[in-house]
Amino acid sequence: MFENQTAIASSHSPHLRKPGPKSVSSDLGAGEPGNSVQEGYVFPLTVGEMKASNSPMHTTAIMPSPIFLWRFKVIWFLIWAFTCCKIGWDSVMRMSADLRDLFLYEAFLYYNPLLLVTMMVWLWGVCLWVFSQSTINYAKIFDLDSNHLTHREIWKCSIWMTIIVPTSMTAYLYLYSHGEVALAASQPVILYVAVALVLIFPFDIFYFSSRYFLLRTLWRIALPLQPISFPDFFLADILTSMAKVFSDLERSVCRMVHRQVATIAWFEADSVCGSHSVAIPLVLVVPYIWRLLQCLRQYKDTKEKPTLFNALKYSTAVPVIFLSALKYHVSPDRWTYVYRRLWLFSSVVNSLYSFYWDITRDWDLSVFARIFKFNKPSLCTNLFYGRRWVYFWVIGSNLILRCTWTYKLSAHLRHNYLTVFMVTALEMLRRFQWIFFRVENEWNKITKSGFQIPMVDMPREEEKLLGSTNHNV
């Protein structure tokens, strides 16, 4: 009796047990009477702890629901937006009325380009979402690998850009209105340097492969020394819609280099970085020159005459830009009776030529082909698929926005910066709807050529997220 009590006590307390060479598994398999106590008290406790730690109830108690997280993020975003608007408005109201508009124009100049880039990234995420729901294999069209950025990852980048750029602008307004001029001047400089470093950071973080793909494509656009691929001229076409962004970036960087940020040195129109600078038309014309060189390279490789007509289309943008800039370098009478008429004529030619090319070549809407099909029927599918009003809307809006192109690129018309911003944003919306029909037309060319691409080559987004734990692209 005392021996059995001693055995039971030793099984409960590790200090009373004698060390032995046998493991727990060997003791359980031996079938000895003394080991039944260990089997009944020690091992089931360990299994119970493991089951408790791996139970679904235990896991759901740690992770909040996705709906709660989404609501929490929306609330914090609204609080942030209200705070930025309140601080920015109070900061502007602290300034004198005579300098307020000039200061807002300068602040807008620094942050306007990055705000428009953020808008374009948002729109590109929408395009990828629509493509992922359709029967178009856009990954094959753009020659993307299986780990390319999805629309969710594009939107994550957009959210961060939406938060960082207005926050920096609010800090700029607040510091300047409170007398901290040096700190205010450093805000746009820090933001521009940070964006540049993120793009060229040579380490495998923050979507390294996608950043490399973007930089490589930009390099191929700037130096078209190799055959032109679809991503090359597709991105180059988008850059032509962002010519105003390039112009404002040049003026912003010029003022940063010459230390004119948050000063009145730039108020003179004829200063180094003023509104009459020769660099403005030069930068505006760069995207069109790139696209022109791409067309000439395509003609060299393919000997197709339509590429020459496409090159002619981009060449018609050059006189519009430079004739407009001549207003500040010639006499008023000469501008009114000579150069203004030439500028109007070149603007009409460029707008109508570009509109014609969009309809007949880029979109191939000579007949009303149905917009591409979707994998699953939805409200969006029923609203757009097979509806002729979609094409009438796209054609009409494209014609109107092609004509307003002159306003945003002609330097002598850019007096109201808010109006120019709205026209530039509308041009990006025009390019946004252009993307759908351009990609659809390219997909039709691929399928009609007999090169059938199986859709199974491109995994769905859910499979990619569940099947990969090291998503770097």
Automatic annotation (TrEMBL):
The keyword Transmembrane applies. Keywords: Membrane, Transmembrane, Transmembrane helix. PROSITE patterns: EXS (PS51380). Residues 1-35 are annotated as: Disordered. Residues 1-13 have a biased composition (Polar residues). It is a multi-pass membrane protein. It holds the Pfam family EXS. This is EXS domain-containing protein.
